[in-house]
Amino acid sequence: MKYPILFILCILCILMPQPAQAQSATWDVVSGVPADVHLRAVFMPSADRAWVAGLNSDATRGFVYRLQLQDGRWHVDDEATFDRPILALVALDHERVVVAGAGGLIVRRDALGGWTHEGLNDSSMEIRSLALFADGAAGWALGTQNGRPLALRYGDGRWFAAEIEIPNRASWVNAAHFAPEAGWAVGSHLWRLDGNIWRLDTMPTLCGDGGNSCELDLTAVRVIDSQHAWLVGSQPSLCLFCAAKGRIALRDASGWQNAFPLRAPIDHLAPSATGYDSNMLTALFMLDVNNGLALGHRRYNTPDGTFSADVVALRYNAGAWHYERPLARSNAVPHGVFMPNANQALVVGSEGLILSYGYGGQTTAPENPTQPVPNPGLIGVRYFPETGHTLRGTFRTYWERNGGLMRFGYPLTEEFAEVNSDNGRTYSVQYFERARFEHHPEHDGTQYEVQLGLLGHWVTAERKGEAPFQPSGPRGFPGDIYFPATGFSMAGEFVGFWQRNGGLPIYGYPISAPFYEVNQADGNSYLVQYFERNRFEYHPAHAGTPYEVLLGLLGSEYLQAQGWR
Q1: What is d(CA 472, CA 328) in angstroms, rounded to the nearest whole number?
Q2: In the chain, how many domains are there?
Q3: How many angstroms separate the CA atoms of 94 and 49, rounded?
């Protein structure tokens, strides 16, 4: 098993948010782990404590972090660093932890914070799954050694090799899980614990061909009781342009079986225009027979010929798997999930990914974010006495590099958290006269880290019945550009500005025809056109200057509609 990083370019399309309020069932990004650390394991001894572990990009070091929930916010603290990758972790309580990984590494943390090495120190071993019982006095560690499956058993204070049946080809164990009188291990094959021996079992039929001819890479398993268990994995692609397919299987009294049809939602979520749609399931947690989460990632072609990707979330309740909105994050693959109860969860993955579910946003919005603030007098913070607000960090960089005052106007609020009504996630936002900035930490370091909110959709929500907002096909005017996606032509007066200043990712598609409209601010009539994220205004008096095309004051209009100005 390698340590894959999926390099992708992902554009989020964010709909109009609502003011932040208490949220109990939302997905949120937890920051605090560097992007060059790829988390592989998470364990929660309680709903407000967690341990996570992983490795660096070149797989030469391992890291352990402690998470604690304080005042509704997850805080991440460095705990330990090792000279080998960490791939598995178990917490016995809030202080006692055992981690394992490459080179036969197994290290135990005691209640006082001391770490003791107790592994076999064998460079050929790679431990990927760890389980402990009887308050840590017994357990199993499984993985791979020299292209073969590896099983280690813990007892009498030491680890020793246990018997595991070896297939006739390269093989490995990715994960194992246990219940009283039951244990299953998955990877290149499927193993069942028989006494103290791991025996090969028949792979479930998941490829839709009526047989077992396809290869499967099983990535996670959860055992409910002696007769019931779940597993997830993927049918890998066998060529450069082939598509991998995520799979889920359930075991009951009749044996292993496909958990849903081959063409279930995981296989056709918004199919790509080109037909390339690859998805893999990489993490699983079953709290009980009625509640569970499966995580993975999906990579697909976009209409413009580039690749995009989503973090895929499937929730099990009411006897079925239900797809949730994708949790998009650039370059991230989920590898571990833990549910302390049916309403909360933590997910970890590559690129320092930590997602929380059910803990609400990491910040809360003020009652009126437009209230002026005093000049803090801090280096790196720009203060605008005209409105009494500051500009700092990523938002300041974006504002200054992309047109500043001319394009966006003055800041009308400080940064605050706002819940997106479409996907339930909380983002840090700041309103300006002509725009709303949204910070997307899942795209840190890319051009999509700051995005403009869909204010154009908001301001035209009640006007869809008016003539300018009825799609009419190509106008045929010289210089126009027609967009079949919305059925509108962009006026030639706006094409150059749209193309030079970010185009589709920044302003979105046109959602109206060009028409003349009276400006509320000065009472004059201008040629305007509404886009998903703003309104363009053509000012012929300023032809040939940077002020020929201006953005409408939609930020001001939104804040006024909320009663904040």
Answers
A1: 34
A2: 1
A3: 7
CB 533 within 8 A of CB 407: no
Contact 452, 436 (CB under 8 A): yes
Tell me, yes or no, whether 82 lies in a domain.
Answer: no
Helix (H) or strand (E) holding 44: strand 37-46
Residue 71, pLDDT > 80, answer no
**Which SS3 state, helix, strand or coil, does residue 97 take?**
strand
> Within a domain: residue 537?
yes
Partners of 432 in beta bridges: 411
Q: How far apart are the C-alpha atoms of 514 and 512, rounded to whole Å?
A: 6
Q: How far is Cα 354 from Cα 347, in angstroms, rounded to an integer?
A: 6
Q: Provide the token pair at 289.
A: 């027979």
pTM: 0.62
303: Cβ–Cβ under 8 A, 6 or more apart, which residues? 273
Greatest mean pLDDT among 99-113, 388-402, 496-510:
99-113
**Domain annotation covers residue 86:** no
Two tokens at 183? 């244990």
184 within 8 A of 191, measured Cβ to Cβ: yes
Mean pLDDT, rounded, of the chain: 83
Range of the domain at 482: 382-561
> What is the spatial distance between Cα 234 and Cα 169, in angstroms, rounded to a whole number?
19
Cα separation of 229 and 224, whole Å? 5
The size of the chain, in residues, is 565
223: which 2 tokens? 């055992």
- Quick check: is 19 in a domain? no
